[in-house]
Write a structure and sequence with these properties.
mainly alpha, three-stranded antiparallel beta sheet, 10 helices, 3 strands, 75% helix, globular
């Protein structure tokens, strides 16, 4: 299987190599976020290449990206493992989320159109059904979509890009937090404030929401 290459890779096409790298990167990231790869699990280039049916080149590049994103840790040049989040890692993530997401909510409340607000309510309902399903991966994806739409409503492309770089690590973090009911209720209150065009109420909901989940994450992960 490891000798099977796509046409783009076999031809040495830069485009083909980038596509393969992204496929491996997305696949590994998803395995980490959903818990199929756990903190401390080792990644071996040869094994990953065989699993994805590619050469080691895109695997090596994918691993480099995931090291930069904070999903992996190099214990030595030849020993790459899934990173165990430290307390400081979690606190830093929430510091960034608090600063950026409250701003995103303010701008979204000021700028959202009626059609965009209806879409937000649809995503909230999807999150409600996901919460009732009790399936962590489904809950995580639905709540991520809800937050992502709010950031899009801000109309600030720089803000969107910055928060996108944190999204995977936040999803990974929330997969480990078993508290979906209160999470949905806080989203309901946030959606209501945005729909009512009450900027201060929406910003307050967002701030309380982030700080609540900072406390939950630190308690559940570190005691």
């Amino acid at each position: 299987m490891s000798g099977t290459n796509t046409p783009g890779e076999a031809a040495g096409s830069p485009t083909g190599t980038v596509w393969l790298r992204d496929q491996v990167c997305d696949g590994l990231r998803d395995r980490i976020i959903t818990g199929r790869l756990k903190p401390g699990d080792r990644l071996v280039e040869r094994d990953v290449a065989e699993e994805f049916g590619v050469s080691r080149v895109p695997v090596r590049e994918a691993i480099r990206i995931l090291l930069g994103e904070g999903f992996l840790q190099a214990l030595s040049p030849r020993r790459i493992v899934v990173k165990q989040l430290s307390r400081l890692d979690v606190e830093n993530l929430f510091d960034m989320r608090e600063a950026l997401e409250v701003l995103a909510v303010r701008r979204a409340t000021e700028r959202a159109t009626d059609d965009q607000l209806r879409e937000l309510e649809t995503l909230l309902e999807t999150a409600r059904r996901a919460t009732l399903s009790g399936r962590p991966e489904r809950i995580s994806r639905a709540n991520t979509a809800f937050h992502h739409h709010i950031v899009d409503l801000s109309g600030n492309e720089l803000l969107v890009t910055t928060l996108e770089s944190l999204e995977g690590r936040l999803r990974w973090l929330f997969q480990q937090i078993d508290d979906p009911g209160p999470l949905w209720e806080e989203h309901r209150l946030l959606c209501a404030a945005i729909t009512a065009a009450d900027v201060e109420a929406a910003a307050g909901c967002a701030l309380r929401h982030v700080r609540h989940y900072r406390d939950v994450a630190l308690r559940l992960l570190f005691g």
